[in-house]
Structures are given as C-alpha cells and as structure tokens.
Write a structure and sequence with these properties.
55% strand, four-stranded antiparallel beta sheet, five-stranded antiparallel beta sheet, globular, mainly beta
Length: 106
C-alpha cells in the first residue's frame, strides 16, 4: 500500500480545523506491533501527557510542535524526525501542525 502523506496531512488538518477539540488522527498503517498514525493539531492544541510505547518516533510533516516531558521541552519543525522519550510526555502544536507517529507496541 502506498499512501500520499501530503494528501493525508491536508485532509486531517482540514478536519482538525473544524473539530471541537482542534485535532484529527487516523491510523494509516498497522502491521503486527507496528502502528503509524497521522495526527493533525491546530495551533495551541495539546495531546496531554501520556505513557510512551516501548519504541516510537515522531516526524513533523507540517508546522511546529513542542514535545514535552518532565523537566524539558523541545520544539520540532517540519521535516524533523525524533525518537519519542521513554518517559511520560505530551505534544502541543505551536502552530497548525501534522505529525506522523510511528510506534511499536507490545
């Protein structure tokens, strides 16, 4: 299966802009323990702090986000790819943004 990430980013950012909570997410790939999810967030919208999966990465497709964990935060911009910290963490859109979350779950 081949996906058009640009089209998915457009679709979900449009959906996030009209959603009551300012976000839209869609599981785009699922193969055993591997999951990839497109998440769109409008500026100022957050994913509250949550537990980390055993392994995960975050790729920013569009916009800017701030990844936070206990005692630190890091701003990521379009084209950035970063491992998700193993500790509890959160994500906030600094501006309208779309990310691709890749996670491996037990």
């Amino acid at each position: 299966m081949i996906l058009d990430l640009t089209a998915l980013a457009d679709e979900h950012l449009a959906a996030a802009r009209t959603a009551p909570h300012g976000r839209s997410a869609h599981l785009v790939m699922h193969d055993g323990v591997l999951r990839q999810t497109v998440i769109a967030l409008t500026s100022g919208t957050s994913l509250d702090e949550h537990n980390a999966p055993p392994a995960a990465s975050l790729q920013v497709l569009r916009g800017r986000v701030k990844l936070t964990a206990a005692g630190w935060s890091e701003e990521l911009t379009a084209a950035a790819l970063r491992m998700i910290p193993k500790e509890r963490h959160g994500l906030t859109a600094v501006e309208d943004a779309v990310v691709l979350l890749t996670a491996v779950n037990d």
